[in-house]
């Protein structure tokens, strides 16, 4: 891993105050949904869904191209607020992420119900049944919902 610079080449591509995007990661066993905010941190948009084994390489490349101020990573919990069975896998990913990108601030966010909300959003938007069965799209929308909720809770007044 080398030094990361924004497009201008003069500023680190992550950390610091203001002016950067927030990136959301919905990490899964097979696939990972990724969403990103605009630079003003107002709008959350789906970015992509990629195979989970390629996430760190994807992020390394993305951080070289875009200024990212912070990353949020979904924290799977059960209804009783206990960690879900996938928590150890996601926690291991978070540790690898922090090792690879030690200067990047990371927030963990509760991701309960995001997949259900993503599926409902697909129904509400009129997507065909075939498109609603696209699990990659559900993962991307789930990351977008996580990010949207995070942005609304952390609005800069």
Q: In a few lines, what is going on in this structure?
A:
This protein is 38% helix and 22% strand.
Please characterize this protein's 3D structure.
Strands 3-2-1-4-5 form a five-stranded mixed sheet, sandwiched between helices. The model is unreliable at 1-16 (pLDDT under 50). Helix 3 crosses helix 5. It is 38% helix and 22% strand. With 157 residues, it is an alpha/beta fold. The chain is built from five helices and five strands. The relative contact order is 0.21. It has one domain: YqgF/RNase H-like domain (Nucleotidyltransferase, domain 5), CATH 3.30.420. This is Putative pre-16S rRNA nuclease. Could be a nuclease involved in processing of the 5'-end of pre-16S rRNA. Pfam families: RuvX (PF03652). Keywords: Cytoplasm, Hydrolase, Nuclease, Ribosome biogenesis. Residues 20-118 form the YqgF/RNase H-like domain.
Helix-strand pattern: EEEHEHEHHH
- Show unreliable segments: 1-16
The overall pLDDT, averaged over residues, is 81
* Rg over C-alpha atoms, rounded to the nearest angstrom: 15 Å
Shape: globular
Strand content: 15-25%
Proportion of helical residues: 25-40%
Q: What is the CATH homology-level superfamily?
A: YqgF/RNase H-like domain
Quickly give the CATH architecture.
2-Layer Sandwich
Number of helices: 5
What is the name of the CATH class? Alpha Beta
Secondary-structure class:
alpha/beta
Total tally of structural domains: 1
Distance between the termini: 36 Å
Oligomerization state: single chain
CATH fold label: Nucleotidyltransferase, domain 5
Biggest sheet architecture: 5 strands, mixed
Q: What is the total tally of β strands?
A: 5
Strand order of the largest sheet: 3-2-1-4-5
């Amino acid at each position: 891993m080398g030094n990361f610079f924004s497009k201008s080449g003069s500023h680190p591509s992550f950390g610091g105050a203001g002016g950067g995007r927030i990136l959301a990661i919905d990490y899964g066993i097979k696939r990972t949904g990724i969403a990103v905010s605009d630079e003003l941190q107002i709008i959350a948009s789906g970015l992509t869904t990629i195979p989970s084994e390629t996430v760190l390489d994807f992020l390394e490349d993305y951080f070289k191209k875009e200024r990212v101020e912070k990353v949020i990573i979904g924290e799977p919990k059960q209804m009783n607020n206990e960690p879900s069975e996938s928590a150890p896998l996601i926690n291991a990913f978070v540790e690898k992420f922090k090792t690879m990108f030690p200067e990047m601030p990371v927030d963990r966010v509760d991701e309960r119900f995001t997949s259900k909300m993503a599926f409902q959003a697909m129904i509400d938007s009129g997507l065909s049944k075939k498109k609603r069965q696209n699990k990659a799209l559900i993962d991307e929308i789930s990351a977008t919902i996580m990010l949207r909720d995070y942005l609304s809770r952390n609005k800069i007044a």
